[in-house]
Amino acid sequence: MCQATAGLAAEGLQKGGKALAAGGFPSTVRCDTAYAKAYAALGHRYARRLSSPRQPAWKIGAALGITRPVRIEKRDLTRRTLSRAVA
Predict the structure, then answer these.
(1) Which superkingdom, per the lineage (predicted)?
(2) What is the Cα–Cα distance from 49 to 43, expressed in whole angstroms?
(3) What is the full DSSP assignment across 26-50?
(4) Which of 21, 19, 20 is nearest to 4 (CA)?
(5) Count of other CB atoms within 10 angstroms of residue 22
(6) DSSP output for the chain
(7) pLDDT in tens, the chain (87 residues)
(8) How far apart are alpha carbons 85 and 32 in whole angstroms?
C-alpha cells in the first residue's frame, strides 16, 4: 500500500508489487505491502508469539483438551484431524 500526504494510495500484494508500485510514485509516497500495514497496526503486539518455534498440531490439540475422536453424523474425526482443524 502506498500512502502520500495528499491521501493517495495503491496496494501491492507482494514484495515485488511493492517495488513496482514504489517506482511509479514520487519519493513523497511510502509503499508497503498489506501484510506490512497489518503488522505495523497489530502484529507488533504478537511479535514474541510470531517469532517462537512452531508447535505441532497434536500439541495444540492436547493443550486444548482434544483427547478422543469425535463422531459427526457418520464420520469419526480422529484427534489428529481435530487438532489440525484448530492449529
Answers:
(1) Bacteria
(2) 10
(3) -TT-EE-BHHHHHHHHTGGGGHHHH
(4) 21
(5) 16
(6) -EE-TT--EE-BSSHHHHHHHHHTS-TT-EE-BHHHHHHHHTGGGGHHHHTSPPPPHHHHHHHTT--S-EEETTEEEPHHHHHHHH-
(7) 545 444 445 444 455 666 666 666 777 777 777 788 888 888 888 888 888 888 888 888 888 888 888 898 988 888 888 888 876
(8) 32
